[in-house]
């Protein structure tokens, strides 16, 4: 039976998120409440979203774009980015998204590897794009969202092109297999890979938005992720809008006060953020939270990194809310494993599989591990939002499928009640004195100490133990490093966990390196410790 979202076999994401909402009578409903970094608010209805994305589809079509061409957005979060994304998809143009703080090398890697034909950007970002343009022979069109035509620099004015573009567009019938979104992974562990998705992914993105995030038409959903990574597209755009659910989008960055104000004043009902943001909130003075009343808020969800139990109990105490952890990857396109309303949270666990998703814990030979024994976290193909390939690297894509399963590259364990527990990325697991230790377990124990603001834990070669546990620790400003504190930290971890997870070495630092989606870059810490070149750090947040 056809999925209820898919009418007349039309899988097109752009169509489903806009035109279909209008056809179903939600045209005048709020689609997006836009709040810019100055606090200015603009409301867009689904009709607005439909018209503006139609215009963008026509704009691209007028330039000669068509099915299968690759187009990128290189913009800060702003309404035009959403219009461009949905418009490109309507035309069956593959849309890639890039963080606006990417530097020249990161741009060159992605635009060069994908052979992108066009890009939309902002005047202030041109200084990063223009110097590399000669090295991008396929890049024919650079559209500047706030600029004029410039024949010398070969720049096109968005305003002029848009004025020439019709607001009417008939989205071509699009099959589930038609390529849709292109994401270069955040590169926590190496060179970014171009993960290509298909329009059929919308089926699972909408299902999880409804079944996990529990969204309804009465909600105002806020996903803090940038569309530069998968959460920002799967859940900042596609999942909610495919269901006709209104979203708040905010153009500014992290600011505890502003965020709390937005949650309260805009009456956000469901909030999706990341452990790194929640850990930052934990570091703030509690007076910020004392005066806010989050009475409209129904649920908080988290994604991107393991959610420390300490964060969950902080949110219960200070925000008066549970935080539900969700697990997925760029490659999976949608949430695969999650805690969710109706399922009892086990702090520290990722939760249970989404209905229809079949995870398995396998050893390296493909044998299923018993419950309680850790191994490779794998998923049974195919699920609707499974990636189609790594662009220009079909070999690497095929390597991910072994023994009849997709290998996620993460290590996990399943308990006897069916909950999955994240241990670490395979590359990050520490093998010390015959024990396998996940860095997350040590980091969570460290974070319980009031002195510690951030931590990143790695394994480093050791003659006796094979690997030793090295903890990088950033203290709250009111504390200073000392041998006594070092001892206290070691004792705390040994008492809390066990002596096997006790760090052998503590290194005090000002902050722990993170990438743009907020993940701790243990690869960079390891290189720093060993005095090696950290490799590709284009996604690092400086
Ligand atoms: P690369 O593959 O290039 O190294 P990346 O894996 O960081 O980049 P993403 O696809 O954005 O890029 O991240 C997915 C990974 O993030 C997962 O494989 C997992 O390691 C981690 N992750 C995501 N959500 C969770 C979660 N809830 N708990 C633990 N880890 C998570
Ligand atoms: Mg990955």
Structure description:
Residues 34-382 form the AMP-dependent synthetase/ligase domain. Belongs to the ATP-dependent AMP-binding enzyme family. One of its GO terms (molecular function) is CoA-ligase activity. With 542 residues, the protein is of the alpha/beta class. It folds into two domains: 15-359 and 380-400, ANL, N-terminal domain (Rossmann fold); 430-530, ANL, C-terminal domain (GMP Synthetase, Chain A, domain 3), CATH 3.30.300. The protein is built from 17 helices and 29 strands. The strands form six sheets. It has a nine-stranded mixed beta sheet with strand order 2-1-11-10-12-13-14-15-16. Strands 7-6-5-3-4-8-9-19 form an eight-stranded mixed beta sheet, with helices on both faces. Strands 17, 18, 20, 21 and 22 form a five-stranded antiparallel beta sheet that branches. Helix 3 (46-63) crosses helix 4 (79-90) and helix 8 (202-211) packs across helix 9 (230-242). The longest helix has 18 residues, at 46-63. It binds adenosine-5'-triphosphate (ATP) and magnesium ion (MG). Residues 185, 329, 409 line the site of magnesium ion.
Instruction: Give the overall shape.
Output: globular
Distance between the termini: 49 Å
Going by CATH, the architecture of the largest domain would be: 3-Layer(aba) Sandwich
Query: What is the arithmetic mean of pLDDT?
Result: 94
- The largest sheet has its strands arranged as 2-1-11-10-12-13-14-15-16
Q: What small ligands are held by the chains?
A: adenosine-5'-triphosphate, magnesium ion
Major pleated sheet = 9 strands, mixed
CATH fold field value of the largest domain: Rossmann fold
Kindly report the name of the CATH homologous superfamily of the largest domain.
Answer: ANL, N-terminal domain
Family: Belongs to the ATP-dependent AMP-binding enzyme family.
Domain AMP-dependent synthetase/ligase: 34-382
InterPro entries: AMP-bd_C (IPR025110), AMP-bd_C_sf (IPR045851), AMP-binding_CS (IPR020845), AMP-dep_synth/lig_dom (IPR000873), ANL_N_sf (IPR042099), Mitochondrial_ACSM (IPR051087)
GO biological process, one term: fatty acid biosynthetic process
